[in-house]
Amino acid sequence: MKRLQRRIVIVGFMAAGKTSVARALARRLNCEMIDLDETVSEHEKRSIRDLITERGEEDFRQTETRVLRALLEKNPARVIATGGGAWTVERNRDLIAEHDCLTVWLDAPFDLCWKRIGREQGTRPLAPDRQATHRLYSARRTLYELAALRVEVSEEKSADETAAELLKAMRRLRFVKG
To answer: What is the pLDDT of residues 80-120, one digit of tens each?
Structure first.
């Protein structure tokens, strides 16, 4: 796959804005985007929350990996938004690398993520309370740092502004034309 046509995989903590930024980036690139969590939910015919609650996180991660593999092999979408934990699984990172995807970490401060999680009123089973969620956030940061690009997220920047910043960095590094 040519460097300028590489797929872009957006990673980061839950509620960092991965789906919103991926949609905005896809609009700017005039290409398709896909959300891994939405695809898993459609495939399994239940919400991510229900999958994790009913089957456990390990079973969910196995399903997530199967769906990610299928997306990378068969779906032409150029921009992929992952779930918050997808990138933390080594086999997923390996799959993404095997398909020569450009990985982008949306680095959102914990307080912003927690604020957004709070608005969702209990839809995130891996965020039962602030302290446990902060521990998870801290534990995952070193893995998110493995992404090729890092873009800071802030409450002051919209998803579209963040996508514009990402696109500018990608152009500077010659990952896209222009």
So the answer is: 999 999 999 999 999 999 999 999 999 999 999 999 998 88
For residue 141, give the H/E element and its range.
helix 130-144
Read off the tokens for 129: 């309370």
Check residue 125 and give its pLDDT.
85
Q: What is the pTM of this model?
A: 0.93
Nearest to 16 by CA among 176, 168, 127: 127
Collapsed DSSP state (helix, strand, coil) of residue 34: strand
Q: Are 124 and 49 in contact (CB under 8 A)?
A: yes
Please state, as a whole number, how many other Cβ atoms lie within 10 Å of the Cβ of residue 146.
13
Amino acid at 143: L
Whether 122 contacts 131, CB under 8 Å? no
Spell out the SS3 assignment of 95-109: HHHHCCCEEEEEECC
